[in-house]
Design a protein that fits this description.
By secondary structure, the protein is an alpha/beta fold. It contains twelve helices and twelve strands. The strands form three sheets. A seven-stranded mixed sheet has the order 1-9-8-5-4-2-3, with helices on both faces. The protein has a three-stranded antiparallel sheet with strand order 7-6-10, with no helix packed on it. The protein starts with 13 loop residues before the first helix and ends with a helix.
């Protein structure tokens, strides 16, 4: 039997192991010089031209960013429903209400028209998600937000290095969050990075992540323990040296899949957008679940469904809202392996499997 092709595969090598060993031997394990260096190197590497603050998870980054931008109970923040629950969770954890808007069919990202329709007198922000590594329609979303005097926050968890018309994601809104979870395009083992538009937001994120202190025992706000350790930062610094090559490989793998797959709808890329393919997500018009099961059982090809249950149908957020493109994507989307560890033989097996099963009506 062929070896199983996983849908994702973290790449950790000797460089990362050596970096962790170096930190362990230094005796400085908590937030320290490695974190500071990682923050500066991350901002420079992705051309963000703004400060970055490292935290212990992407979800923490969203929550601290929202709090630092003044989001509070009674406020509304417009979010897509077709995303991981952390997007809506982070809004709810501030005491504000996530308001779910539909996506556009062409990029799986928040629809500017749906944002316009969802704005009320309580709206203080809009949080698009650069889903699967494709940038949202930030030009239109920023223009809509400016007209209504609301802030824009970016969930860039899956989009390290993605750009729109030359501007990197993470450089549009008041803040942006990048996840550093093991299966993302780069990792620190666990963690998140928050890019911030100005020094005021930066200072608050730094306060909130560290129990509300800038100086020890002089707490200024009620804060959290959401610091990144130097151990995790050391891993992230090594991954920064490799992520560009990995992204190029993801893009090459995606190009091969798009050129050869049949019976499914490959992911489009908008004009002016650079897609970094955290996921290679196709639409399966009929029996997505059957195709996924057959890929695993018959061809040892893994896949993922992101996300079969939209946020607006999850128990904590259940609301009777009509989101037709969200529902269609939730029923049709299937993410095929695209990670940089794939071999040419892996890619050919994925194509052969999908094409054979699609032709057979699996």
């Amino acid at each position: 039997m062929s070896e199983f092709i996983p849908p994702a595969k973290p790449l950790i090598g000797d460089d990362e192991i050596a970096a962790v060993t170096r930190v362990l031997r230094s005796g400085m394990l908590a937030q320290g010089p490695e974190v500071k260096a990682f923050e500066e190197e991350f901002a420079a590497h992705f051309g963000l031209d703004r400060p970055c603050v490292a935290v212990n998870s992407g979800t923490s980054g969203l929550q601290l960013g929202l709090l630092s931008c003044g989001v509070k109970p009674g406020d509304e923040v417009i979010v897509p429903s077709f995303t991981f629950a952390a997007t809506a969770n982070s809004v709810a954890l501030t005491g504000a209400t996530p308001v779910f808007a539909d996506i556009d069919a062409d990029d799986f990202c928040l629809s500017p028209a749906a944002v316009e329709a969802a704005i009320t007198e309580r709206t203080v922000g809009v949080m698009p998600v650069h889903l699967y590594g494709h940038p949202a329609k930030m030009d239109a979303i920023m223009a809509t937000a400016d007209r209504h005097g609301v802030q824009v926050f970016e969930d860039a968890a899956q989009a390290h290095g993605a750009t729109l018309h030359g501007t990197p994601v993470g450089a549009f809104g008041a803040f942006a969050m990048f996840s550093l979870y093991p299966t993302k395009n780069m990792t620190s083992g666990e963690g998140g990075m928050v890019s911030v538009a100005d020094a005021g937001i930066e200072r608050l994120v730094r306060l909130y992540r560290n129990q509300g202190m800038e100086r020890q025992y002089h707490n200024e706000v009620v804060g959290f323990n959401m610091r990144m350790t130097d151990i995790h930062a050391a891993i992230g610094r090594e991954q920064l040296k490799k992520v560009d090559a990995w992204t190029a490989r993801r893009q090459q793998n995606a190009a091969f899949l798009s050129a050869h797959l049949e019976g499914v709808v490959p992911p489009p890329v908008a004009e002016g957008a650079v897609h970094v393919y955290h996921q290679y997500t196709v639409r399966v018009p009929e029996d997505r679940d059957g195709l996924a099961a057959a890929l695993r059982a018959e061809y040892q090809v893994g896949s993922g469904m992101f996300y079969p249950v939209p946020n607006h149908r999850l128990a904590p957020f259940a609301v009777p809202v009509e989101l037709p493109e969200t529902e269609r994507a939730a029923a049709q989307c299937l993410s095929l392996p695209v990670h940089p560890a794939l071999t040419q033989a892996d890619l050919e097996r994925i194509v052969a499997a999908v094409n054979a099963l699609a032709k057979a009506g699996a």
